[in-house]
Design brief:
Blueprint (H helix, E strand, L loop, with lengths): L1 E4 L2 E4 L4 E4 L2 E4 L2 E6 L2 E6 L5 H17 L10 H20 L4 H27 L5 H36 L1
Antiparallel strand pairs: 1-2, 3-4, 4-5, 5-6
Helix pairs in contact: 1-2, 1-4, 2-3, 3-4
Length: 166
C-alpha cells in the first residue's frame, strides 16, 4: 500500500516518516500543524476498507425499501453481515501478526459472501430488483478481489518470513 500526497509518498512497510508535519507509524498516521493532531489508523488508508464502507452505506439505503416485518429478520441479518466486512478489516489491521491479519481478512471475505447470499434471497423475494442486485454484485466482486489481493500479499510476506527463519 502506498500513501501519497503533495508532500511525498510513504510505503506501508516504513515504520515512520515525517514530512511537513506528517508522521506515519506502523499504527497510523499522525498529522500535526497549528496545534492540531489527527490520528488516522492504518486501516483507514486501505482502499478495500474504504470501498467496503461504501458498500455498507449502499446496502443500508437499500434496506429502507424492505417490508417492515423483515426489520428483525433478513434486514437485521444483512446489516450484521455487511457491517462485519469493514469491521473485520479494521480489527485485523490492529493485530501484530500476519497470521492474525490474514485470519480477519478471511472472516471479512466470509461476511461479504454471506451478505451477497442474503441479497440474492432478497431479490428472490422481490424486495430488491435485479438491476440493484447486479450493481451490488459488481461492488461485492470489487471488494472481494481487493480482500483476496491483500490476503495474498500478506501470505507472500508470511512465507518470506518463514523462509528467512530457516
Amino acid at each position: 500500500m502506498r500513501l501519497s500526497g503533495c508532500c511525498g509518498s510513504v510505503e506501508q512497510d516504513v515504520n515512520w516518516f515525517t514530512v511537513y508535519g506528517l508522521r506515519v507509524t506502523g499504527y497510523g498516521l499522525q498529522v500535526t500543524g497549528y496545534g492540531l493532531r489527527i490520528m488516522v489508523y492504518s486501516f483507514e488508508t486501505l482502499r478495500v476498507w474504504q470501498e467496503s464502507r461504501r458498500l455498507v452505506v449502499a446496502v443500508y439505503k437499500l434496506l429502507d425499501g424492505f417490508p417492515k416485518f423483515e426489520k428483525y429478520a433478513l434486514c437485521d441479518q444483512l446489516r450484521r453481515a455487511i457491517v462485519s466486512v469493514p469491521s473485520n478489516i479494521a480489527e485485523g489491521s490492529g493485530r501484530s501478526s500476519l497470521k492474525e491479519q490474514i485470519h480477519f481478512l478471511e472472516i471479512s471475505y466470509g461476511s461479504l459472501m454471506e451478505s451477497y447470499n442474503q441479497l440474492i434471497i432478497a431479490a428472490d423475494l422481490n424486495y430488491i430488483d435485479n438491476k440493484s442486485l447486479d450493481v451490488l454484485k459488481l461492488d461485492i466482486g470489487n471488494v472481494a478481489k481487493m480482500l483476496n489481493g491483500l490476503r495474498n500479499s500478506f501470505l507472500k510476506k508470511l512465507n518470506e518470513q518463514d523462509n528467512g527463519k530457516h
